[in-house]
Amino acid sequence: GGGGSREPVPPTLRLKRQRTRFTDITVTIVLPWLVFFLVVSLFLFAYHDMKAVVWVLLSLCLVMALLFLCLGCYSRHGTFLSVGYLCMTSLIVGAAVGIWLDQEYLQRYWELDDGVEYKNVDPTESRNLTDAGILHFSAGTFVDDRRTIGFVHNGGLFCVAPVALQAQRNDTVNFWAVGEDCCQMRSNFDCGSARELDVATAVIERPSKEYDQAIREAVSVYGISNSTEGSMLVSFVSDPQALIGDIWDEALTIALISMIMDLCMCAVSGLVLAKLLIQPPAEQQPLLKPGSIA
Predict the structure, then answer these.
(1) What is the residue extent of each domain of the chain?
(2) What is the DSSP string of 188-229?
(3) pLDDT tens string 274-293
(4) Is the Cα dihedral 115, 121, 123, 125 positive or negative?
């Protein structure tokens, strides 16, 4: 009696199988990374003006990921399962990075970039400047660091001081210069360019509970009062456009770093999942040669 022998796989068929496996692994790595790239880019460039459109596109990406997962489960196809899982992960992580960038950088960037630039602002006059982004104060404006207050909170020192006009004492404060960790408890306000000569340009700052508490202390300690229409917080800068550009550059740098890190994670995860789920095509079943049966 003879024994069975496996018929060799033709080289063209073996090459085709290798190409198919390479394509599956490439798709498993590249498609999830493209989802991450798209999500972060949408938050960078579109979320400010088109929030609804961004969330619709993110929902479509979610549907696509779920579709891949369902197809993978139904057909027991490892590539679809891998792509669906990694796309879902990239979508969630990308949205988290995008939301964080928006809260930490982009809201501030658009607030200053879209804000109105006012010139020759008299700090002793109460004006409605809620749409302001950049303020150029009139000549003679200075920060009265003799009435500085530093409020300690969670290890940080939140500094406030009135913005005043030389040779004109005014106990009603319309603008407060603010900063963090740049003063002493009752003096030496040195935040931004507040102490530079001939620098009277400031950008609007957001209200915060810490600054509000510091202002209340200053009102109590120095016997001054806030504007009845609400005072504004500002930080003095020598070049506001450079500041705005720095905010955007930092946000973009973090986004690019996150994209590179996600590509590396997709590559590692894709290769691991390919090893576990994307099995190479089965070899052809052994055939018995004629005359091998005794």
Answers:
(1) 11-113+246-277, 117-238
(2) ----TTTTSTT--EEEE----HHHHHHHHHHHHHH--EE-TT
(3) 677 555 544 434 444 454 44
(4) negative
